[in-house]
Write a structure and sequence with these properties.
With about 180 residues, the protein is mainly α. It is built from eight helices and three strands. It folds into two domains: about 1-95, hpI Integrase, Chain A; about 110-175, no CATH class. Helix 1 (about 1-10) runs antiparallel to helix 3 (about 50-65), helix 1 (about 1-10) crosses helix 5 (about 110-125) and helix 5 packs antiparallel against helix 6.
Length: about 180
């Protein structure tokens, strides 16, 4: 389960995409995960961070040489874990950490890992001065979205970004915009 949650958090996968990965889909030599027939019946290639690939190598070594059609994360019966199992583990982890669950659809939700990944990626690009208009299609492809609007759904301008935007604008245009002097 730890590697499943790391893939959700570190790559923005949908939980169902991770659960159906086969050994042939996880190329640990090249550091590429192939998501097959995901939402909208699309395939995509996902390159995880090298630290995550190294963790997946250690995980795979535990199982030895497996046939290509074997599930990468086999459940107790050898088939994929049920979504319900992952949700149950997630809820237990929340309780152990003292994080209240607000109810079905209220969160925290497993899908929030995907939202977090998208927002953190956007923030990282913003901080390094990347052209967000040029980068957004890359993020959409990485997440497997059919249209940019699907990605934009995750990338609400959060209050967390406001201090950074304000600081950048002040640094660039501080002298141009006069400050109001309080008396």
């Amino acid at each position: 389960m730890p590697e499943i949650f790391r893939l959700l958090s570190g790559c923005g996968f949908r939980v169902g995409e991770v659960l159906i990965l086969r050994v042939r889909d996880v190329d640990l030599d090249q550091g590429i995960i192939t998501v097959r027939q995901a939402k909208f019946r699309k395939d995509r290639l996902v390159p995880p961070a090298s630290s995550l690939v190294n963790r997946l190598r250690k995980y795979a070594e535990h199982f030895g040489n497996q046939p290509p059609d074997t599930f990468f994360f086999p459940g107790p019966s050898g088939g994929p874990f049920a979504l319900r199992t992952v949700y149950t583990v997630f809820r237990k982890l929340l309780m152990q950490c003292g994080i209240a669950h607000a109810g079905r659809g209220q969160g925290p939700r497993i899908h929030d890992f995907r939202h977090r990944f998208a927002v953190h990626t956007l923030r990282r690009w913003y901080r390094t001065g990347e052209d967000l208009d040029a980068k957004l299609p890359l993020l959409a492809t990485y997440l497997g979205h059919q249209h940019l609007s699907g990605t934009q759904h995750y990338l609400h301008l959060t209050a967390e970004l406001f201090p950074e935007i304000t600081a950048r604008l002040d640094a660039a245009f501080g002298e141009v915009i006069p400050r109001r002097i309080e008396r």
